[in-house]
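Weekly sync notes, structure subgroup
Attendees: PM, AL, DS (notes)

Item 1: joint prediction request from the bench team. They want all three components modeled as one assembly rather than separately. Inputs as received:
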Amino acid sequence: MATVIFKATEACNAQCVYCDVAHNKKAIREKMPYELLELFFTRVNDYLLAKSDDTMEIIWHGGEPLLLGTDYFAKALEFQQKQCEKTAHRIRHSVQTNLTLFRPEFVPVFKQLGVTSFGTSYDPFTDLRGIGATVDANLYRRKFMESVRLVEREGFSWGMIYVVTKLSLDRPLDIFWFLMNLNPTGSMMFNPVYLRDRSLSHLDITAEEFADFLGAIFPAWWKNRWRMPRVEPFRMMEENLRGSRSMICCDSGVCAKTHFGIAPDGNFFQCGRAMDWGLLGLGSIKERSFVDVLEDPAKAKMLERTKLLGETECKGCRFWDVCHGGCPLDGWLKTGSLMSRSRMCVAKKIFLEKYFEPAVNGNGSQKKTVENCRVSVPGAPASRPSGDADEKQNGAIWINLRGAAGDALMLSGVLKQVADRFPQRKFNLVSRTGLDPILRGHPAVGEIGNPPADTRIMSADYWEEPGYGNRGAEAGRAYQTLARMFGLELPVDECLWTANHAEKDRISFGLPWKAGNLLVCPAADSARKQMSIKKWEELVELLSGSDTLIVQAGKRSSPYIRGTYSLLGLADERELIPLLPRFDAVVTVDNFAMHAAHLCGVPAVVLWGPTDHKVSGYRGQRHFQAAPGCGLEQGCMSSGSRELCCVPCSQEHDHCLDSLNLQEIWGAVGEILAEKNEDPWLGREERPAGRRVEEISLP
Amino acid sequence: MNSSPDQILSWENLIYLADFMAASGERAISLLGGEPTLHPLFVDFVLYLLQREFRVNVFTNGIMSSHRLLELKEHLGAVPNERLSFVCNLNNPEQTDAPAWQQKSVEEFLGAMGPWTQPGFNIYRVDFDLEFLFDLVNRYGMKRRLRLGLAHPVPGAETAYIKPSEIGLAIERLYSYRQLFEGFQLDFVPDCGFPLCKFSNEQLGWLYRIGGVEMRFKCSPAIDITPDMNVYACFPLSNINRRSIFEFDNMRQVVDIFAETHRKIRAEAKGIYPECDDCAQMNNGTCSGGGACQLLNIFKNEASVRLPEIESELKNTCLPV
Amino acid sequence: MSLRTLVCPYEPELINGFHEREIAVRVDSPSLVREAGNAVRNSGNRLLCVILDSAQPVDAVPFEDGWSGIPILLTAPAAGEFRSIVHKLPLLRSLNLKIYLSSTNENIRDARILSSLGLSCALRIEPGAVDWEALSDLMTYALCGRAPHAPIDPFDYISRNYDSKVHLKWGAVYLDDPEKYFHLDKEKNVALSCKEAVAGQFIGCLDDIERAEPEEIARRTDAWSRNFTGFSPCATCEGFKLCMGSLRPEDEITEGCTAFFSETLETLEALYAQEQRAGKDHVWRL
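Output from the run, pasted for the record:
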């Protein structure tokens, strides 16, 4: 859209202190003659015919355009209708006015011109804006308020520019709320004052001061932006954050392509401010068309400025896209060169870094880590068992394990290796539900109960250990980490062990065994490690056959998988161990059954999601690892993130485990069942002596 | 903002709680304390809750001023006893040192509100005597259902309570009154914390015959809300995971939070007896394995190895031996 | 000029002189409620409500079954004893009744009680000794209460009419809006608010005013804009959009009212956002 700052007069009824036009002796106070006015609309029409896709915004500016009077605007309308018959629908009129002269008589002609909004400017607290030679600020305010009410009653919208001066700096929020409470229906813009007259330097502000002014009001706008008018530069910055590239002329870097100004004598200028300062003249409307002007080499030079700045002064600035070096006239004000960047770009930078980004992006506080549950007696060594002498002096160490039964089975295996190597080493165990049954009777465990207050405690929470979960290293595996914690030299065989299992299971005699017998164990201590019931049922349907029995084990409260033979609640951990060897394979998730299958040497197909088979799964088992779709590449329950254990997965239907390929799982089970015929021990009630499985040595 | 100090419930908080309960689908509210009838607006609050279509149950010791009793008679005397009920906790006058005026006050209360009132009794010693109770029930036309509770250990307080090792004796003592229960057709439902295993099959059969299917051997969050709008699972666990009711949107969330607290306690120790670990009735959910408050007792004098909220509770209180 | 609703005393001759007007008729005796309501209806005019100004608390007002069908605006100094009101609740709920109370602490509390029991209330908020925090608490209940309850004005009116882009006037809750209501005496002299009518501050005769609207009305309508020319502290208040300076305290201590109206705006915005997300009005009303 091409924009013309159209000054049909530079006369003004106000004498705002910082206004260049009001105090410019060379300002043209007469009205643009009608001949030129008509020529103007001819040029408008020519432009729109030449640029069939473009529209034109005519901003009636000044001085004070309402001084032109209703007749003048009526004439403008007449000329537009005459000269722009076919292009009038692509012309938009708006008016920049102090509104103090607005009367009901203006309404009809503005409505016919299609004016829907007014831009204005106001200062609630200082006397910098005033009417007449005496700069009567009170009169200005009164007239302004009356006119605004009239504007609203007549259905126009209005927006405002507030010019920030030194006098504004001590009450930014008062100014902000005052202006918001006026309830402009259009945009609100905060601009720094630009002063050429050094006698007004007491009003001038630095870039830092402007940034701090914006910073003082930004939080109030940001918090309430939904019910606020559009406030610049805030809204523009927010939109740019979201990818839109809407910018005002000063920041776009391409104002030369779209803007120009016309003075009352018909002379062209780069823009309104250039006109006020007598810079960048581009000839006259009498000789030149709008296309000529927009393609003038001087304008091309302005575009080069943008390129030049991007390669020099502004190179590498991360705010380039919302600034482009600012207004060239700002730069000229500072250095005398139009090719310099604006002095206010510092303001923009400070504002964005100090105020905007922190508010929009949050404070960036560190996520709190889970409080470490590892405890020890103050003054006593924390963890590792250091030797027999130490124990003799201080009594047996109490092992505190906060895990589940599977962790207890791993601990049992590690402690068995400790006991084998160091038979005299004994530990006590803090009693906890589910652990005692696995570890009772262990040769390395003495007492299971409540540790006295002043005793040595050793945490067996291996997931808290440094190095745990490192997939690239064997030492990062769960079993290896636990072994290291108990002083074993790595790598160790990942053997499991328990003395306290039921001698014989009580229920297998009643099961309808078939040629192929599978055990499925869908439940885990965390819902995140579970695949959905629906998926399990689909898998069971795949696995089912006339010669295959599929049994489900787990707690009584676990959901039942249709198609399985339910042993829910009938076999706890101790009772599951003697039952397992009756099965040809176990299909499970990361739970006790996975560990127990390893203990018993029963082939297992294990389904993984938030935890990692490379860390916690056993060699020899068949693992299916789902890729997390939640953005947590390591899985939501990898090392250090166990706090999510009890929190339901937010992905619901997109839970990682539900993305596993059931056909592949079925295929793996099929392979196991086929291999069964090659292994004479598989599927037999009796196995070679002992419950230990000789694990394949780790490379 | 409350219209009264934090020690007593304000109108604003009462309305908030009524809204909260209604939004949660709860239709019954119990008022307890301390002694709820001491609240200056007790009658107004009951009338309000009745107007809000709640069924109101009041736990009281029956000791109140004559003025309060008069208010009860005047304003609550016509309320159907399906809508309003009292549980009056009764103590054996011979086994306790209660002064005569308290006994008289209780009898005056029962004289006025007997038909609305269910007797309550807490077993805090194994040689308790229940005979007085049957007499009161008959004399004042009370409801023929006894709310029978076990006195539980209260953290930080030197109160009498029944230890796990004594529960069997207490049940034997209770069973010795079976003729009176049957003769006067008084039934009872055991309150929380009774372990199933301490009842013999014969005792269970008797319980079933007089109490029907309402027997429970569970311990689960009862949910108490204080005048200053804090909420906890029950009084013995009042310092564990105490929260503000304003943190929740409905009762389901409250129950879930404290059920999780219970689960965490049970993850440390399953039940009050070693046998609980392997107990089938615990596994199938018929019995909770005694009160969670009793479990805290197990951890006393221990090193700091439990969950932080439990450790904090143990540190801040002095559990009875 | 649009015809205003007329708020006038119960004078049959006065009322019969109007034709097809909307009328709110004032009585100060409960015995006149039915009579006044019927008189307006039978006169060919539309009855907005009967305003019963009671010097007694609500629990002492002798409500009647015969009042059902008559919209009643009851002004009372207080609610009275709760246990007295509770026995009358079935009758009160059956009436088309709105209870207006002043904004004392007790009334703020009682408005909540009555609303929770299904009785519509309004609090007259006057500048001066208002416990803004208590009022804020009540506002939160009125707008966000989780259980169904009767409306509490002015909060209900504000929430139904709030538009973030415009200033909101809610004097209509009290029939104090010069654009909508004229308060008359029996001689048809017009005052622009109830208080002015009581004080005898009339701006002219109804017939004259309806022929040519005096400037006073426009001045009153635009009175809020004088905050911006008179350097009022209200002009820089975050909550101005809802208050518009109408509750400016004489002592110019504005922390309380500022906090109250700001919080109300935030609550309204939150409700609006909720509504947009859910696509329906979350505030349940009887």
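Discussion: Residues 34-50 of chain A form the longest helix (17 residues).
Action: AL to compare against the crosslinking data before next sync.
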